Description:
Layout: H1 3-29, H2 34-48, H3 60-82, H4 87-94, H5 97-109, H6 115-132, H7 141-160, H8 168-190, H9 194-201, H10 203-230, H11 233-239, H12 242-254, H13 261-278, H14 284-293
Helix pairs in contact: 1-10, 1-12, 2-3, 2-8, 2-10, 3-7, 3-8, 4-7, 5-7, 5-11, 6-13, 8-10
Amino acid sequence: MRVRDFLLLVAVCLIWAFNNVLSKIIVSNWAIPPLFYVTMRFAVVAVVMLPWLLPMPRPAWRIVAIALCLGGGSFALLFMGLQTTSPSAAAIVLQLGVPFTMLLSVLMLGERIHWRRGIGIALTLIGVLIVTWRPGFALSHGLWLVAASAFAGAAGAVLMKQVDDVTPFRFQAWVGFVSVVALGLASATVETGQWTAAAAAGWPFAAAVLFTALVVSVGAHSVYYHLIQRYEANLLAPLTLMTPLGTIGLGVLITHDPFDLRMGIGGALAMIGVLIVALRRKPATELLVEREVR
């Protein structure tokens, strides 16, 4: 992976990490119904990305499936889970996205996992588990929803690798459009008091929706969609483990969470694993292709 792309991915993970903290506040502290929150977020995305909506990528079923997995499905399940579980426990379960992505990329894309990358993945996962593990961990109803969110995100990422010649903005347009339709109907059917809760939260909720829509979805996710079109799915998946580390770091800065030796050791192991994955030597055939392109 090129240094510039690696730094872009670091920035994306930090934005996602802050969004995790913010989303917990929105659905828990402010009591905003999660499906309504996701609908409002993607409504902004759909409006901003409207000029890129047409023509519709083909086949239509695949772009709809990607939109449901990466957009409404993944986020709705995550935010529903955050209502009843802690961010640290959710961070552990979200790491299921790594083996999910690797398994699906092998089954659906025929990708292979080199032993050196496997070591980097293992070190990163061990480091994240050391940082985020808490005694008494149990897979509650909320964490099952988080696990389903991890699988939906992994499935969407792998499906995206099967789509050619679709720009990140067009992906965003369809993610926004499909998510608004699907989740808007779901929110109207199963949730109540949405607008009352939004009015009680006031302008901070409006600002949060704009941030998550414009900075997180349009900005960070567009960059990620661009990267996933350039690199293997099972290369990017372990690198996104920087997100839970960033979540913990921002928790220390914003909410003054304690930082102990266990967190330091786990963070160091995770970052070593990330570097091993990112700095993996390329096969000679890949280097030859790059020289021919240049």
